[in-house]
Amino acid sequence: MENNIEIRQMTKTYPAFRLDRVDLSVPKGSIVGLIGENGAGKTTLIKGMLGLVHPEEGEVLIFGKDAKTSMKEIKTNIGVVLDGSFFMELLKVQAIDTVMKGIYDKWDTALFYDYLQRFGIDPSKKIKELSKGMQKKLEILTALSHHPKLLILDEPTSGLDPVVRNEILDIFQDFILDEECSILLSTHITSDLEHIADYLAFIDNGQMIFFETRDKVLDSYGILKCDQKKFERLEPSDVIRYRRNRYNYEVLVNDRHSIRRTYRDAVIEKITIEDLMLLYIKGEKLC
Ligand SMILES: Nc1ncnc2c1ncn2[C@@H]1O[C@H](COP(=O)(O)OP(=O)(O)OP(=O)(O)O)[C@@H](O)[C@H]1O
């Protein structure tokens, strides 16, 4: 399997935060969802990869090329949408075409107008007159209009209503169909990832907790629910994190099928990505 992105041992230190030797791969033809709570290090990782901040250690290969020395060439094949980035708001939508033509050799005017029509964006409107959701769509379709092979998106669907989000998720799924293109996106809307992500990368406090296929995460992790007596009988190594509620314990386990065989009378439920993150971040460790 070939990767469009390979990050090895990226380390970036701020006075009160350290992104600590993070590895991440984005295979061709896949969508990788980057998850983690506020301040976990997702944006730092993305900016470090793009050379927008400078990690002290680590190596980034994009399309097999060293990002430090080949970023100019790499950038012609990537589309980027960063959280909080915005277009030149005073311009009209159609001016984007003129600006981007000058930047990207492969800029496709026909495709850009096609997307505008498909998503109901009036080219003659000023960007600042568009709603927030429309502006976000505009950013994403602009990122797509020079035929990139890789999309890197920080919170692309935040603040969007479910209908617009769905439209955008459809575009993402179309984008990777040719098995060459990939998407790396960070998001807090974990339910979106349950639909579209092939892999999940979970960062907590600057550390990569896991990088797994979505199917493996959803199939193998689980929540075991039990009373105190049963909780005390669990093998400590089976308890990844736990939370004590008013009436019972919720235990994060990472191989629910074998756990079910071991504790036959236990109630073990499937887990959502959101519950997994919550239990991992808010739960306690046994030792
Ligand atoms: N330029 C900076 N100087 C100092 N600290 C920084 C700087 N940029 C980020 N940080 C710190 O690094 C940590 C990680 O921030 P980062 O933006 O990468 O998190 P995130 O996972 O993207 O969060 P969110 O989900 O809120 O966007 C935070 O504690 C943040 O305050």
Describe the structure.
With 287 residues, the protein is α/β, with parallel strands linked by helices. It is 36% helix and 28% strand. It has helices at residues 42-50, 67-75, 93-103, 109-118, 132-144, 162-175, 190-196, 214-220, 228-233, 256-262, 273-282, and strands at residues 3-14, 17-27, 31-35, 57-62, 65-66, 78-81, 150-154, 182-186, 199-204, 207-213, 222-226, 241-244, 249-253, 267-269. It has a six-stranded mixed beta sheet, sandwiched between helices. It has a four-stranded antiparallel beta sheet with strand order 2-1-4-5. The longest helix has 14 residues, at 162-175. The chain is elongated and about 70 Å long. It starts with a strand and ends in a 5-residue tail after the last helix. 33% of the residues are buried. The protein binds adenosine-5'-triphosphate. Adenosine-5'-triphosphate (ATP) binds next to helix 1. Keywords: ATP-binding, Nucleotide-binding, Transport. Pfam families: ABC_tran. Residues 2-230 form the ABC transporter domain. It comes from Anaerostipes hominis. One of its GO terms (molecular function) is ATP binding.
Bound ligands, each once: adenosine-5'-triphosphate
Beta-strand content bin: 25-35%
What is the CA-atom radius of gyration, in angstroms?
21 Å
The number of helical elements comes to 11
Return the average pLDDT rounded to an integer. Answer: 92
